[in-house]
Amino acid sequence: TSVSPHARPIIRVRPLTCTETRRGDRRVVHSLGDGAVHVSAARHDATFGFSTVFDTGASQEAVFEGSGMRQLVELAIDGFSCTVFAFGQTGSGKTYTLMGPLAQSETQPASPALLGLMQRSFACLLEQSRSRGSDLALSASYLEIYNEQIRDLLSPGSPCTLPLRWNKTHGFYVENQLSVDFESLEAIVSLLLQGSQRRRTSAHALNRHSSRSHALLTIHIRSRAGRQSITPLTWVLQPSACPSKQGTLCFVDLAGSERVKETGSSGELSVEANSINRSLLALGHCISLLAKPRGKWTHIPYRDSKLTRLLARSLGGSGITLMVACISPSSRCLSETLSTLHYASRAQRVTTRP
């Protein structure tokens, strides 16, 4: 399979909200076609180039088909470490792009047309595993990073805090994280919805359902290629003739960047916002350094936050990464939109060794 050594950022521009339209916000972001995004406002006139841009009218299905998610699922089955992460300002549509409507639950599922990248990827994964006829074992783990604490979203009872460790073999990993086996689409979607309902969220001036944590759902895919074509005797005498593959497909829903003054946050909300912004700043710093020519690297400070430690392999190591940059077209969000676009521009210069 052909694998790009570059992190691949795509842009999604959400529509203006009813609130933004009512108060007279202007649309300052326009897609020019061929991956070009133009930002036009007083004292700001800039054009950015990306491989793929989804404008305000793009459907959830169009984003899935046009983002390369099918290929990413196939690569994960083939044993690669694949990561998808959504970033952008609070309220820019990250969780909607990954999961679909916030109001969905097991008893009130979302309309199939509105399902996000995650559910569509799960369906593609199970379809691929059936069509390949390979012996796949699937499991899922789900955690959040809240105020620099890692919490297991699938453990029974209230989410428990887990330690983050490092060793030479695996790099950074979460100790004692629960991993749940699944074999059907219903089972993995149930795990997704159960875990998502336990995430820390709050309402503030910019977003009525603001994620206060970074969430990482990881699908672990274990297979033994060619098992059906090898006799038991050959398998015993030549174990290498039947290599085992272990791939992962990780979805990262980053908490949104936000300016505390604009959100009206105070007390605990302010503490959460500062923690979110610090970890996003650390992530941005790592991306800026990784975007430099490899010979100019001095030190990549992955240890500056729990988030960068967990994403170290995806960003600058042996992983394959798809970055979904979500932006608002509103004139009121201009500063954060430009910040996200600059962030994504740097990210597409990052190279890895899949």
TrEMBL record:
<dbReference type="InterPro" id="IPR036961">
    <property type="entry name" value="Kinesin_motor_dom_sf"/>
</dbReference>
<keyword id="KW-0547">Nucleotide-binding</keyword>
<comment type="similarity">
    <text>Belongs to the TRAFAC class myosin-kinesin ATPase superfamily. Kinesin family.</text>
</comment>
<dbReference type="GO" id="GO:0007052">
    <property type="term" value="P:mitotic spindle organization"/>
</dbReference>
<keyword id="KW-0067">ATP-binding</keyword>
<dbReference type="GO" id="GO:0005874">
    <property type="term" value="C:microtubule"/>
</dbReference>
<dbReference type="InterPro" id="IPR027640">
    <property type="entry name" value="Kinesin-like_fam"/>
</dbReference>
<dbReference type="GO" id="GO:0005524">
    <property type="term" value="F:ATP binding"/>
</dbReference>
<dbReference type="GO" id="GO:0007018">
    <property type="term" value="P:microtubule-based movement"/>
</dbReference>
<dbReference type="GO" id="GO:0005875">
    <property type="term" value="C:microtubule associated complex"/>
</dbReference>
<dbReference type="InterPro" id="IPR027417">
    <property type="entry name" value="P-loop_NTPase"/>
</dbReference>
<dbReference type="GO" id="GO:0003777">
    <property type="term" value="F:microtubule motor activity"/>
</dbReference>
<dbReference type="GO" id="GO:0008017">
    <property type="term" value="F:microtubule binding"/>
</dbReference>
<keyword id="KW-0206">Cytoskeleton</keyword>
<feature type="binding site">
    <location>
        <begin position="88"/>
        <end position="95"/>
    </location>
    <ligand>
        <name>ATP</name>
    </ligand>
</feature>
<dbReference type="InterPro" id="IPR019821">
    <property type="entry name" value="Kinesin_motor_CS"/>
</dbReference>
<protein>
    <recommendedName>
        <fullName>Kinesin-like protein</fullName>
    </recommendedName>
</protein>
<dbReference type="InterPro" id="IPR001752">
    <property type="entry name" value="Kinesin_motor_dom"/>
</dbReference>
<keyword id="KW-0963">Cytoplasm</keyword>
<keyword id="KW-0493">Microtubule</keyword>
<keyword id="KW-0505">Motor protein</keyword>
<feature type="domain" description="Kinesin motor">
    <location>
        <begin position="6"/>
        <end position="350"/>
    </location>
</feature>
<dbReference type="Pfam" id="PF00225">
    <property type="entry name" value="Kinesin"/>
</dbReference>
<dbReference type="GO" id="GO:0051231">
    <property type="term" value="P:spindle elongation"/>
</dbReference>
